[in-house]
Amino acid sequence: MNKRIYYLLSKLLDYPADAIEIREAVKELFSIISVDEDANSTEIEVLKGFLEFVNSSSLEEMEEEYIRAFDILPLIPPYISHHIYGESYKKGEYMVLLKEIYNNFNFKTEKRELPDHISIVMEFLSILDREDRIMFIDYVIDGLKKMDEVARRKETPYSALIILSYKLCLKELEGVIKCSMS
Fold it and tell me: Which of 6, 40, 119, 124 is spaced 20 to 30 A from 79 at the CA atom?
């Protein structure tokens, strides 16, 4: 899997700051996925909806939709631990472990988000080699799956990015399982 996909997803899942950069990132992501021999039509269709949204929206409209989707009383809480643990104390333990993993890879982000924010997770995936990425995906996949389930029930263009993030991570894990069974 192309590491650039995760980087672009991290940018698109972050608070929108520049409409032109967002449009360029989603176009690049769309072109990478469209030429990927493993991509299926569902992934392309999911991303088409988001591409249409950014192309027809002003920066202010993108910001409003981002806030509606991920921020104040979010449709889709962007924190993986929330989807796994809710308000349990285990959520804190999960984030401490994430920070330790990030520190082991000297990963530092300039984003001011908690370590389990979906944009941070995607950014981290973008720096890992395939073997480490597979191990990290295995660690976060349950939360991504639950986030995907929530996203599928919500009406927001940002659902597409969550669904795509989960599908791509799942595809990487399934590829490893298929290889090990052969």
Answer: 40
Q: What is the pLDDT of residues 74-101, one digit of tens each?
A: 999 999 999 999 889 899 999 999 999 9
Q: Would you list the domain boundaries of the chain?
A: 3-181
pTM of the model: 0.91
128 phi/psi in degrees, rounded to 5: -85, 150
Per-residue pLDDT tens digits for 18-73: 999 999 999 999 999 887 655 567 778 888 999 999 999 999 999 999 999 999 88
Phi (first) and psi of residue 120, to 5 degrees: -70, -45
Per DSSP, the three-state class of 117 is strand
DSSP state of 168: H
- Write the CATH number of the domain with boundaries 3-181: 1.10.3480
Secondary structure (DSSP) of 50-107: HHHHHHT--HHHHHHHHHHHHSSS-SS--BHHHHHHTTSTHHHHHHHHHHHHHHHTT-
Q: Determine the straight-line distance between the first and last CA of the chain, rounded to whole angstroms.
A: 19
